[in-house]
Amino acid sequence: MYRFLLTPRWLAAAALTVAASVIMVFLGNWQLHRYQERSAINARIDAADSTPAVPLSSVLARPEAPGRPGASPGEDAAWTKVTVTGRYDPAHEIQARGRTVDGLVGFEIVTPLLLADGTAVLIDRGWVPSKDGDAISAPVAPPAPAGQVTVVGQVHLSESRPAPLARRDGRIDTRRIAVPKLAAELPFPVYGAYVLVSEPEPGFTRVSIDHEDAWQNGGYAVQWWLFAVMALLAYGWQARKEANGDAPKKRVDRVAAADQRMAAVPSARQPD
Q1: Which has the closest alpha carbon to 60: 36, 41, 84, 38?
Q2: pTM, full prediction
Q3: Burial letters for 104-136: b for 16+ Cβ neighbours within 10 Å, e otherwise?
């Protein structure tokens, strides 16, 4: 009944179905992995306010030379609550433009914090609105505190897709806080990630931390697995349909052949 499955056409269809199902299962597993990663990040975000801060040096690799940032940390370091002590360097302050808070366009102000060992870490001190309400008018930002300060904040990985840098109103102007590109413009070794302050100074708005959309990845994983099952079921359904369609045809062919044989047999009745 199912011998047709051994024909080249059906063997090719089986191979394609299995290959497609394997790929779909792989994609589902990859989405599951992303779901687990993003869920872990969300857990760190939620726990950051209630967990004690750890020294920055225990999370990020120390940079060795000016112009070259320290090693970029993995995603497991993102949003870790850290503490670091040093002196702000307003001469190399950075403004990241085009940032919105509650529908208002403004800037994030990033100031290098010089540590006692000569290295530096970029500190995102918070958000301020642009002076004229557009994306390029220089903001009026409170000056960085003088003297030694201790900063508590969360590790933020470098933003991707580095943007051009320019000097504007006494600051380095950019669209993205891309640590490697910024580090190349600074005269001291810079850590490979920056720190987002937990409690901004007066005049700044805290930059909100968006949770990762982990459930979307979980939904995609289930979808890919369902597609794999559906592909196998579709192949089985088509094979069964083919088999059931062949059986009546074969029965009809056998009956027709029998009728032909009967018609060919001479009648036993003799003429009068």
Answers
A1: 84
A2: 0.68
A3: ebbbbbbbbbbbeeebbbbbbbbbbbbeeeeee
Q: How far is CA 217 from CA 23, 26, 126, 220, 228, in A?
A: 17, 14, 30, 5, 17
**Sequence-ordered alpha helix ranges (H) in the chain:** 8-48, 179-183, 214-264
Which is nearest to 139 in space by CA: 147, 150, 128? 128
Going by their DSSP bridges, the two strands 120-129 and 166-168 should be labelled as unpaired
Nearest to 262 by CA among 250, 254, 251, 272: 254
Nearest in space to 125 (alpha carbons), one of 98, 93, 100, 103: 93
Q: For residues 87 and 120, give the distance between their C-alpha atoms in angstroms, rounded to a whole number.
A: 9
Among residues 108, 111, 131, the alpha carbon closest in space to that of 205 is found at: 108
Placement of tokens 């806080």 in the chain? 177
- Structure confidence by residue, pLDDT tens digits, 10-60: 889 889 999 999 999 999 999 999 888 888 878 877 777 778 999 999 999
